[in-house]
Fold each of these.
Amino acid sequence: MSPTTLDTADIRRRNLSAVLSHVVEQGAASRSAIADATSLSRGAVTSLVADLVQAGLLRETEAVAAAKGRPRVLLEPAGDDLCLVTALLDADRATVVASTLSGAELRRVEHRHGRPMGDPAAIAAVLADALDELRSAVPRRVADLSIVVWAPVGGTPPVVLADTDLDWGEVDLVALLRERSQALRAFEAAGGAVQLVADSEVAAVAEHASAGHPDGMLYLKADSGIGGAVVLGAHDPLVLGAALGHQPIVPDGLPCLCGQRGCLVTVAGPDVLLAAAGLGDAAAADGLSAALAEFTARVHAAEPQAVAAWTPACAEVARAVQITALAFGPEVIVLGGFYADLAAGVDAVFRGIQPRLGGSSAVHVPRIVGSTLGADAALRGAQRDARARVTGDPLALVR
Ligand SMILES: [Zn+2]
């Protein structure tokens, strides 16, 4: 939309959003600090704050002592009757979290689904139960409901395209939940639209914030498979899901489930590495995460079989990252999942394969770091996106 087509209501909505977003993201702030941060006039901020206080989205704090001058009154997020609901469906569990507009966790419900392969209805029932249990425990109005899956998502309305961990083809998960969850039906009846999102895209959002909003980031994550995302820009970044596990990295390599040959996942995926390290049985007995934790521990302890499995895989990961990084020049490369603990080794190999065009100093080499967010990255990213949607149109919450 060009600025000339914005009417007064649009401008006011955008300004309300700027004020509320600032307080939600940065915490309690004075009117003049908000004016400075948003480039709005002090008078405009006073009027916008009045609307947001009236709508129950902001409130004034008790007067706090200032470094100099008289005590100041700050604005902080209110919205005590609202919550954001974020659900994560992974290979073992359905996790559902209610949080405040500021991101504070109110309640978490976690149910194991026992991984019934190829049975989406059984898993939808477990997730529906978790959603309804959360709604009873947190009787607030749901301002946003998003569901994160460990799989690619597409279509309108969005559906799960294929979940190899659960042996799903295309599954309309939201429709399955609609039949089973009272909480989801209530949210839709109030005019809400359920968001269905792929884990690597929302995890990338959280990792990008955690890395300090670098100008361009490549995110590569390995847990039950390998996925990732490309993040363009520093603030308000564009996040593009990327099938990095299916980069055909080895010419004429092993056939992959996707139909190509030599994909990264065929040489550096969890199953391949665990089998090569002699941990295939551990994965079956103790679960994938425990087996992968043991694998990375053995690599660090220089156990010969684990090192022999990881060394060639590490080189392929570095090469895959190099190919993608050259395409868009990210500032930072973040490795998530079990690659996080192995990031230093990948970085060492990566540094050794950089181009030397016009002398090495002419080329910016991104740093590779391991994720520090762990398993919660996707949920935290989804909460961030939910906050952005809700603060994007503040008065929609109180209509
Ligand atoms: Zn593939």
Note: The mean pLDDT is 90.
Amino acid sequence: MTSTVRLTVGQAVVRFLAAQWTERDGERQKLFAGCFGIFGHGNVAGIGQALLQNELSATGDDRLPYVLARNEQAMVHTAVGYARQKDRLQTWACTASVGPGSTNMLTGAALATINRIPVLLLPSGTFATRVSGPVLQELEQPYAGDLTVNDAFRPLSRYFDRVNRPEQLPSALLNAMRVLTDPAETGAVTLALPQDVQAEAFDWPAKLFAPRTWRISRAQADPADIAVAAEVIRSAMRPMVVAGGGVHYSEAEEALLAFCEHTGIPVGETQAGKGSLPHGHPQELGAVGSTGTTAANAVAAEADVVIGVGTRWSDFTTASRTVFQDSGVRFVNVNVARFDAAKHAGLEVVGDARATLTALTEALDGYAVDDAYRERQQTLWRAWDEQVEAAYHPSVEVTDALADGLLTQGQVLGAVNELSDPRDVVLCAAGSMPGDLHKLWRARDRKAYHVEYGYSCMGYEIPASIGIRLADESRDVFAMVGDGGYLMMPTELVTAVQERVKVIVVLVQNYGFHSIGSLSESLGSQRFGTRYRARGEDGRLDGDLITIDLAANARSLGAHVIEVHSASELEQAIKDAKAAPADGGPVVIHVETDPFVFAPDNGAWWDVPVSEVSAIDSTQHAYADYLEHKQAQRPFLAPADGDAS
Ligand SMILES: Cc1ncc(C[n+]2csc(CCOP(=O)(O)OP(=O)(O)O)c2C)c(N)n1
Ligand SMILES: [Mg+2]
């Protein structure tokens, strides 16, 4: 007879999750570090009771620690920050109550799926039996009796299931783990759990709870594809690599280094791929695309073969398809997901980045770019690096022109870069800083740069910094957050206090949305509605600055706050923050900047449509400008293995 265990669905979920492991390259680790949650009806009794029972009685590897968050969107961000830092080998589950608690996780789900980061979401549902419906927070639709708000997770999840009967749970759980641990499929995985089902008991086969190891294998590309790819690369005069997040997730940095050193091919980096080559490497081109360096973009403009490694080719990477200007440019795409490998009519080399780069290096034996190409790339890079130096240390003319107590954003980024340890992590997500960081940050370690630019979600910064620090306590984490981003999601400072997690938040106050203000201006919309100003006498939002005290706000949430008003105070603050106790909770450095000192220009574009007709002069001018930029847009349709001419 099969041995069985009688547990509720909630208890079975918790017990199962605690028993899951991943293994790659012979290293084994727990898949779930724990479960974040906020309780309400729906999960307070079901999953909540199960987590309590686990906390009270489970020991060692059977534990699934519970952490109370402050906002459900934020707890998904924390899980994403953790999973990305762990190269997608480990993550967290997130439990939320019926209705708003669950739908608050939707933004987090989209962010995880877009960035290809595994998180397990457990939204609670209204009664599967419907006996007492409509219950509090239940959505009713006259046209569909089986619909719930949790159906909104379907388009945002890589796997979705609703467990309406206990018998459905085993296959739902196994499928959820399959997708979470598949590098080509991974993202948000959602198991919706109706509140009555969570509390229902069932006799489960004991084998369901046996420790289970999900092997994350390194998919090998087809040797025939490697051979064609090598042939295409050998035919190139001006090849370049574009390194994406897949380089990091596959731990392919050394394989990339070997590939570049054997071939002399230079490397541009996407936001997720930054740090693929350490700063200072002779083949470094830095950021490529809309927020790219002049070096990477000049090389890209003439590249005849572009080797994308682990990139999903976002518009920022290609400067909306304008950065690669060679009329016959061809793409060779190394990617574990065929979906991404096929982009831009690329030659699909479907496989793990590390394994594939190693195979390609062998297949390219004897091939190298010529010396003139190497020299050109290095000259371009040196010219850019001088601009970075000038942004980090602006001239007296620039600093003297600043109002009292203000710094430039470049100065702030430079100080954090120079005073942090090479292994410390810098983190950002939205506003003007991601672009400036992409251009200016000197990434000195493979896991030291974490800009979320798939969803570029304001409010990601503080919760994700907690996840990163939980993932690796040997690194300090610097969360760079604008005043707009801070106001979206300061709440998790309280969670950092609760868990005594040391994160260093650099809060850059510039009174509004500087990034969108600049964008608005360039599109002829005159910075409309982007400044934090009171409503003026003319009825418009152009009155006095709203001088709210964000430093006091952070202090009230339990953070240790340091306010700085000069470059030397900023230096001291960074040193003090680094010296703060490792388990002392969050430190916030509050600094005001002058947003009108910009990072060095790269002349690159980003396609944001301008109104075709308008009654405003500035919009009409912007539209003429827009049409001109559109001319440079390329379709990228050349067959990758075809004739280059
Ligand atoms: C959740 C969310 N809402 C809106 C946006 C659009 N958006 C991008 S940047 C930005 C302004 C960010 O302001 P702040 O954090 O102060 O940074 P700054 O632009 O001033 O550097 C906005 C509204 C977004 N990215 N995320
Ligand atoms: Mg701002």
Note: Residues 430-433, 456-459, 482-485, 488, 510, 513-516 surround thiamine diphosphate (ligand 1) (CB under 6 Å).
